Amino acid sequence: MLQSKSFVRKTKQGKVVKVVREHYLRDDIYCGASFCKVCDTKGARFTSPESTILVLDTNVVLNQIDLLENPAIDDVVVLSVVLEEVKNKNVAVYNRLRALCSNTLRRFFVFSNEHHKDTYVKAMAGESPNDRNDRAIRVAAQWYQNHLGGATRILMVTNDRENKRKATEEGISADTVESYVKSLGQPALLDLLVQPHTSDDMEIEDLRPSKKKAIYTEHKPMSEITSGIRCGIYHQGKLRVNRYNPFEAYVGSESIGDEIIISGRGNMNRAFDGDIVAVELLPQDQWHNEASLHIAEEDDEEDDGVHLAPSSADVAPRSANPAQGSSDNANNSPSRPSGRVVGIIKRNWHAYCGSLEPMPMPAGNAGIAHALFVSKDRRFPKIRIQTRQLGNLLDKRIIVSVDTWDCQSRYPSGHYVRTIGDIGDRETETEVVLIENDIDARPFSSQVLACLPPLPWSVSSEDLSNPIRQDLRHLRIFSVDPPGCKDIDDALHCTSLPNGNFEVGVHIADVTNFVHPGTPLDSEATQRGTSTYLVERRIDMLPKPLTEDICSLRADVERLAFSVIWEMTPDAHVISTRYTKSVIKSCAALSYVEAQARMDDSRLMDPVTADLRNMNALAKTMRQRRIDRGAITLASAEVKFQVDTETHDPLDIGMYQIREANQMVEEFMLAANVSVAEQILKNFPQCSLLRRHPSPTKEMLEPLLRTAAAVGLDLDVSSSKALADSLDRAVGDDPYFNKLIRILATRCMTQAVYFCSGDLSPPEFHHYGLAAPLYTHFTSPIRRYADVIVHRLLAASLGIYKLPPIFQDRPQLTSIADNLNYRHRNAQMASRSSIELHTIIFFRKRPTDAEARIVKIRANGFIVFVPKYGIEGPVHLTMRGAKGGGEWVVDEQQQVIKKIDGTVSYGVLQTVKIHMEVVEPQPNRPKLQLTLI
Asked: Which domains does the chain have, with CATH numbers?
């Protein structure tokens, strides 16, 4: 049956056009019940007539997704009208709902009510889209009641009073979410409900502000924000909260080309870390300078009034001597733009991990208890929740979601989602790391595993006879990786040619031979984006049979590869480049240490060692040429743990050592990535996936320049070449000085990002750090989805396969690139958090003294870096309430903090002796405390 739907819409040119769509209606759409007498029961989800089948309205799905994910809620009809409305309003909830519907262990059934001839409803004259959708939900619920003929109970669930009233009048059984959940007789489920928006009505006296008093300023309406941004009154950007001071945040604003400092909870005005906000600049006499920024002490709390709106003392530049000070300090340290949040453009609320603030159990231990949830991450405020299971939760790490935060409430309100485990347990705390960084660590589904070839797998005769694949098993190919590496995705060869040149090959695991576009395996990899490396385990992007066996280029087994092969002169000039799918057989899987030992041992003259030395000589030449071109050698404080194989406890900790062997492999991987970038862009100028590294702005480099100037260094940052040369010249008396300067330079850089070539112009493709006009990722397809996409582009450029249809869809490609950037950053943050967790476990029983370097000066102390352990943290010079601490004054120009009487001073990059031990100043928030010896 054919229906015509017509509507009017405005074109980009402003014309109004009438659009007529054909809408097909069918009578063979199944209801999803196995006990139905009429429908085909293949693929049915509802198996028991004793169960109640729920028909949900859109707002129930949008607001109560945490409840729906609980296994106690099942037998749910998800109408297509609801699915579409949820997709338009909240993509994150839509994805969670789709996951529920596709999970074979859950009984959620999608019913296409919009295409069923008995449930499709036409909009009536004067009816709003919202009212039409509510009517469609009621019609579908009525149809289910009639269709299943009393075989089971159908219940429409809605919190909309009017919708419920109409349903009841029409003879449909309807109920509110809360009433239905109460009928299940599981009181703990009520904790999962999003509470209706209420003001501050908590029964805790000292937290209870007056009903009438607004603690925060009302947010401006969106229309006012939009016009304010257009006129330059407001500035838009992402709010980032300082990890050492939760009462201080920054908003990077493109409109003023600088970061705006937001100081105090009052000026943050209910914004969370990661929110996109609108900011209004404060009058210039209230701007901050670096010297006035603080390290927050652990017992600073949100309910300290001083943090709600900064006092004039907080805002004015700090000086020790009021008689001489303020203007002097202002002269030698420029103040930076400071502002306050006037509105939230996009919320970044997600699930938060932490624990409940210790409190006495209420008398009788019955009914609802009000509690404050404290996030493990100090950057987030406390969250008020109601719970019926307080006794079970006080010693647990739990997950809480935020529901609302109105201007009369000191804290946001939220609800309990689930318990993770016991506080302090390593498995629990590791899961917290994964949840907080949105890392999907669930086992792969049966649909994903069904895409894998059966084990044991080996190269077949078809693979060897395939004309697209070259047999390179005769070559002396080897891999060089970190110790214990099982997911080996790259291998190398280097053969001397009769003409005195070298044939050099980079061979990369042919992952796309097994991961095909559009399969569940491909969708899963697209979503995960990258593998995540924690201290004690790896969360794979692809299932283990692929990562550790079928695709891994292990020694002495035949494997499929995608090879880039160059002919190079002895001074590393490329004569020719070719690309081929191949079959290889690695003769050695070496660790960096083993490869280095071979190259260093002059007694060893075997062929593999000779190849290593030749490759290393070429790599050194290539590296020098890259540096001459302006590539920057940066440094990071990478930490390496030695972990007990049985208990997974850390046994030792130290800085990660980079050897020549590491640099050799890196050089050839960079060269392969550049070659492939040129090849794919030449063939697909509009849809290539590339990687760019934007140049840092002058403002971003300011902290580095200030620090360098304070220690007598003149850094030239006019180009990457000028900066690279300056860093090479930055050598002090001690060997660690240069590395420290490079670490500080690394922190001023922008993030490198993936992008679709059609979205930007060629000058924007530039990679600042590598000083390369073009770059991509091709060399790690086992652990990065970006490389899988690039393998498909390379294969299509060689005419091996057709380009998958997704490459015609630019918006979809852009959205994949955005997800890859998000996942890549989250994986890095999770690795960092895992290191912090294991650092605390390691030092808990080992208080230690160590040398540290001062890297940042603050008004009440400084941030130090401990080279031996790769640890960074704050050192307070004055603890609140400490007697005889003396007053300190900051000279920002010289990057020095000194006692007012001039007896003691500390300068940036100075070496200090510190004591490190694990303390717990706040319950359930252990931290590594650094104190000056």
From this structure: 28-187 (3.40.50.1010), 205-211+349-436 (2.40.50.700), 222-346 (2.40.50.690), 446-691+770-827 (no CATH), 706-746 (no CATH), 847-932 (2.40.50.140)
